[in-house]
Amino acid sequence: MEGDDSNFPPDSSDDHSQRGSVASSATLSRAQDVLIYLCGDSAVHLSVEGLGSVSVQELGRSVREALHIPESAQDAFAFWLSSPLLELQLKLRHQPYKLCRQWQDLLYRFTEASEEDISQDEPCLQYRRNVFYPKAKELQIDDEGVLRLLYEEARDRVLTGRYPCDPEHWTALGALSLALDEGTALDGQQFTTTVREKKLSSFLPVHVVMGSGGLFSTLRGKSSRQTGLEQNLLEEYRKISTFAGNSPEPTQLLHQYLNTCHTLPYYGCAFFVGEIDKPAQGILQRAKRKTVNVGICLEGVYVMDVKEKHVLLGLQFNELSWDHSYPEEQGDSHILWLEFDGDEDGTPVNKLLKIYSKQAELMSGFIEFCVELKSASEGGAAAEMDGEVSLSQQPAGPDGSSKNGRGGRRGVLHRQSSVLCNRVHSLNTISYVDNGKEIKRLKPKRAASFFTRQVSTYSAVQVTESLEQS
C-alpha cells in the first residue's frame, strides 16, 4: 500500500509501543547517521542531530540541498516509510523516528500479516514522488536530476507490473530506458549483446519476460518468446534513433518516458491492498476472493488484478460514490464500498463493489481528500476565468458531465483487449435500483430447472436485509 498523506492516523502518543531497545535521549540528541533511500540503488547519507524529534519538513530541507532540487520542484517529492508489508506517505509534521517506533502497531492495524512477519519487518525511509503532485506540473520540470528521480520510480512501477501496460506501452518504455542507459547509437549486434548482458527484464516487465502457463510451457517457449520481445524492442529502439538522432539530450528522453507514463490513468497513484469476491462458478462452489491493488490518485480510483496485471474497474471521481464500513462482529472485514452506474440486460442500475481490506479506512479518507483537492483546484480555475466556460469545456453527447449526478458515463476509450479497459463483467457486484421511495435489489428470476438454460431476466425485488449483509 502506498500511504495517505492527508488521513494517516495521528501519532497515538510519544511513548506508544515500547518494543525492543529504546535509545536514550542523550544518544538521540547527538548527531546520527541517516540513510534516505531513493528509487533505484542510491541513497542520501545525512548526519542528523536530535533524530528523535526531527520532522519530515526539517529532513526535507537537507535532502533537497543534497540532491540540488530547485525550489520550483520541491513539492514533487515526499517522504515515505516503506517495507514489504506497508508503504505510507508522511506528512510534513510527522517525525519518522517516532513512527518507526510505532511500525508494528501500524502493521497490526492495516495489514493481514502474521505475527512472525510483523516481528521481522523493518521500514526504511524513502524520498519518492508526492502522490498529490499534479501531472500537469510534472510536465513543466526541466531539471535533469528531478526528472531522473521521477523516471527511476516510474520505471520500477512498470517493470514490477504495478503500472499495467499494453505491449505498445512497455515496448516503447523499454526502448527509452535502453536509450537512456546506452545512448541511441547501438547497432543490431551491440543491441543484442547489451540486452542479453543486462537481461531483458531490465527493460521489459518481469511478468512479460517470464510468461505464463506453467514451468514446462515456460521452458519450451522461453527462447522463441524472448527472441520476439528482443526484436520488437530493437524496432522501437531504432525509431528513437531515427527521430532523436545519435546524441539526444537526456531531458528529451526523460520527458518522453514520463509523457508515455502519463497516458496510464493510474500513474502516480497511491496503492492499497484488498480483496474482492470472485463471481460464483456454480451453486455448490464456495465463494472465493481475488487479491487486488487499489490505486487512488487525483483523477480517480482504479481496481487492478494483481495476478493478471490488468484493470478490473477504473472510475473518475464524478462517476462514483463511496463509503467504508467497520467490522460488526469478530471475523468480519473492513469494507470499502464503491458505487457506480451499470446496466443489467439494458436496464440502468446502480452497482456496488465490496473491497475487503484493513486499509479501507485509509482508502476512504484518501478518496475524500483527493476529491477536496480536485474541487479546490477546479474552483480556483473557474474563478480565474471569471465564470466564463469555454466551448472546449462544455459537455457534449453521451459523455457530457451534466447527464446525471455523477457526471454521466464515459465512452469506451480503449479496446476490450487493453489492460487499461474496465472488466465490470468479471466483477461480483451488487446491482440495485432506487425508485425514489426505497432501494430495490435486482435479482435474476430462477429457471424452472437447474438443467434448463434460459435467457436471464431481472426484476426489482425489495431488499429484506441491508446491502452490507448481503
Summarize this entry quickly.
33% of the residues lie in helices and 21% in strands. The chain has 470 residues and is an alpha+beta fold.
How do the SSEs run, as a string of H and E?
HEEHEEHHHEHHHHHHHEEEEEEEHEEE
The CATH homologous superfamily of the largest domain is named Pleckstrin-homology domain (PH domain)/Phosphotyrosine-binding domain (PTB)
pLDDT below 50 for ≥5 consecutive residues: which ranges? 1-7, 9-26, 387-416, 441-470
Beta strands, count: 15
Shape: globular
Q: Round the mean pLDDT to the nearest integer and report it.
A: 79
Protein name: FERM domain-containing protein 8
Biased composition (Low complexity): 1-11
GO biological process, one term: negative regulation of canonical Wnt signaling pathway
Domain FERM: 32-378
Layout of secondary structure:
Blueprint lengths: L24 H5 L2 E6 L5 E6 L7 H12 L9 E6 L4 E3 L6 H6 L1 H8 L4 H6 L3 E6 L5 H4 L5 H16 L7 H16 L5 H11 L7 H5 L4 H30 L5 H13 L7 E8 L11 E8 L3 E6 L4 E7 L3 E6 L9 E10 L2 E10 L3 H25 L45 E5 L4 E6 L13 E5 L8
Antiparallel strand pairs: 1-2, 3-4, 3-5, 6-7, 7-8, 8-9, 10-11, 11-12, 12-13, 13-14, 14-15
Helix pairs in contact: 7-12, 8-11, 8-12
Could you explain how this protein is built, in words?
By secondary structure, the chain is of the alpha+beta class. It folds into three domains: 29-133, Roll (Ubiquitin-like (UB roll)), CATH 3.10.20.90; 134-211 and 227-264, Acyl-CoA Binding Protein (Up-down Bundle); 270-379 and 413-441, Pleckstrin-homology domain (PH domain)/Phosphotyrosine-binding domain (PTB) (PH-domain like, Roll). Helices cover 33% and strands 21% of the residues. It contains 13 helices and 15 strands. Strands 10-11-12-13-14-15 form a six-stranded antiparallel beta sheet. A four-stranded antiparallel beta sheet has the order 6-7-8-9, covered by helices on one side. A three-stranded antiparallel beta sheet has the order 4-3-5. Helix 8 runs antiparallel to helix 12. The chain is globular. Mean pLDDT is 79; it is low at 1-7, 9-26, 387-416 and 441-470. Residues 1-23, 384-410 are annotated as: Disordered. Residues 1-11 have a biased composition (Low complexity). Residues 32-378 form the FERM domain.
